[in-house]
Design brief:
- The complex is a heterodimer of chains A (110) and B (133).
- Chain A has one domain.
- Chain A is mainly α and 110 residues long.
- Chain B has 133 residues and is mainly α.
- Chain B has 2 domains: 68 residues, no CATH class; 49 residues, no CATH class.
- Chain B is 55% helix and 0% strand.
- In chain B, α1 packs antiparallel against α2.
- The longest helix of chain B has 30 residues.
- The radius of gyration of chain B is 35 Å and the shape is rod-shaped.
- The chains are: A mainly alpha (110), B mainly alpha (133).
- At the A-B interface, α2, α3 and α6 of A face α1, α2 and α3 of B.
- Chain B: It is a multi-pass membrane protein.
- Chain B: One of its GO terms (cellular component) is EMC complex.
- Chain B: Pfam families: MMgT (PF10270).
- Chain B: It comes from Orbilia blumenaviensis.
């Protein structure tokens, strides 16, 4: 029995809560990445600066989630702690971001 | 998820601010395209994005930040993943299951049926056999 299994036996977790929490966090991330895309489109960012904006925005959103939703204790609500919060659903978030980014870029600049 | 009044107000205010910033940026790009650019310096033609005024940039950034704060602080609820704190919270009533207070996660195990009245059941069976002939 390795250390991780032992730890799981000593401190059992509730799988339903784990799944529900990560779903809530990825919902928040996809919602906020669409909003970040709107901002990037209005600002007229192009290529790398847009993705840099997305990365900074995601970090900001993760900080907000850890502060407001988790009350500063991420390890209570997700297994990996704050790393899980940042890495939650990055690919899906990028999709939503690029979608609204290009949409608003086209809308604002005719 | 129940939104509190301050976060509702924050979301409404920053949405209006964001819409205004979007409209301003649109107007600004219209202004640039309608202004005839001087023929002698083609390099002076502004590239989109680099010429956005500072106030629109700031308005966009501030409104999106406020909107994110408003959305994230509007009462999203997570449950503790460790069984110890979750079961403790359910038993003490801090965490509600399906919106109501329950005695504990393993409440079903506390409910046992009473003793069976075997004599009564045997008598009922005997009566039933008699009626069947």
């Amino acid at each position: 029995m390795n250390a991780e299994e032992r730890d799981l036996l000593l401190n059992p977790i509730v799988p339903e809560n784990l799944v529900a929490n990560s779903k809530t966090i990825s919902d928040l991330h996809s919602l906020s990445s669409s909003l970040l895309g709107i901002a990037a489109g209005i600002l007229g960012l192009e290529s790398y600066s847009g993705f840099l904006f997305y990365l900074l925005g995601t970090l900001f959103v993760s900080t907000l989630i850890v502060t407001f939703v988790m009350g500063g204790k991420p390890e209570v609500y997700s297994r990996g702690g704050w790393k899980d919060v940042i890495a939650a659903d990055v690919t899906g978030g990028v999709m939503g971001f690029v979608l609204t980014w290009t949409l608003f870029f086209g809308l604002v600049r005719v | 998820m129940t939104r509190s009044l301050p976060s509702k107000l924050l979301i409404a205010f920053s949405s209006i601010l964001l819409a205004h910033a979007c409209y301003s940026a649109h107007e600004h790009s219209l202004l640039l395209s309608s202004t005839p650019s001087p023929h002698d310096s083609p390099s002076a033609t502004p590239i989109s994005g680099t010429t956005l005024p500072l106030d629109i940039t700031l308005e966009t950034l501030i409104s999106v930040s406020l909107l994110l704060v408003g959305i994230i602080s509007s009462g999203w609820e997570l449950k503790p993943i460790s069984l110890r704190s979750y079961a403790g919270g359910v038993e003490s009533g801090r965490i509600l299951l399906d919106g109501k207070k329950v005695a504990g996660l393993f409440d079903g195990l506390e409910e046992r049926p009473g003793f069976l009245d075997v004599r009564k059941q045997r008598k009922e069976f005997a009566d039933w056999v008699k009626t069947q002939g």
